[in-house]
Amino acid sequence: MRRFVSLFLRIGAAISGLIILAIIVGVLANVASRLLFHRSIVWVLEFTEYGLISMLMFGAAFAVVDKRHTVVDLIVVMLPVSLQRILTVFCNLIGLVITAGITWYALEAAIRSWRSGAMLYKFVVIPEWWLLSLLPMGFGLMAIAFLTDLVAPEPQNH
User: Fold this and answer.
1) Per-residue confidence at 2, pLDDT binned at 50, 70, 90?
2) DSSP strand E in 3-136: where?
3) Is residue 121 part of a domain?
4) For the chain, give me the number of helices (H) and strands (E)?
5) How many domains in the chain?
6) Fewer CB atoms < 10 Å away: N or C end of the chain?
7) Which distant-in-sequence residues (6+ apart) come within 8 Å of 109 by Cβ?
8) Cα dist from 10 to 62, 86, 112, whole Å
């Protein structure tokens, strides 16, 4: 199970990397356009904003499962291994409950937006639920990552 989830989340991390690349190319093109033609590419800022949200949602779960998220373990590493395992389970439970709760409420918001037909009016007009749907996907993937750590923990090397 851990292998499958890890592979799936690595794909999300790769998508996140491609989004960063697209943002960099878009911003550089916008800067070049402003320098050379004295005109901005009007949609670049908007897509950069959406890209940053997308990148975060696709990449965050990978950070959780790969243990690359923010961890303060200054005191924990000095504890006995058995207590470290208990704390790891406790922290994964807290992470699971929080991300599952956010997933639920974000999904409700996205569905409400979809049903109401709400739109985002900037330079590019898009349905609001397109952007809102990124939240339950991202937090849902994080919940799966925490659940994976609970049911199929990585062996500890001590």
Assistant:
1) confident
2) 119-121, 125-127
3) yes
4) 5, 2
5) 1
6) C
7) 132, 135
8) 6, 27, 30
Q: Do residues 133 and 62 touch, judged by C-beta distance below 8 A?
A: no
Each residue's pLDDT tens digit, 118-154: 998 888 899 999 999 999 999 999 999 899 888 877 7
What is the Cα–Cα distance from 24 to 52, expressed in whole angstroms?
Answer: 11
Q: How many residues does this entry show for the chain?
A: 158
Element (DSSP H or E) covering residue 6: helix 2-37
156 torsion bin: left (phi>0), alpha (psi -120 to 50), beta (else): beta
* φ/ψ of residue 119, rounded to 5: -125, 150
Among 68, 43, 55, residue whose Cα is nearest residue 125: 43
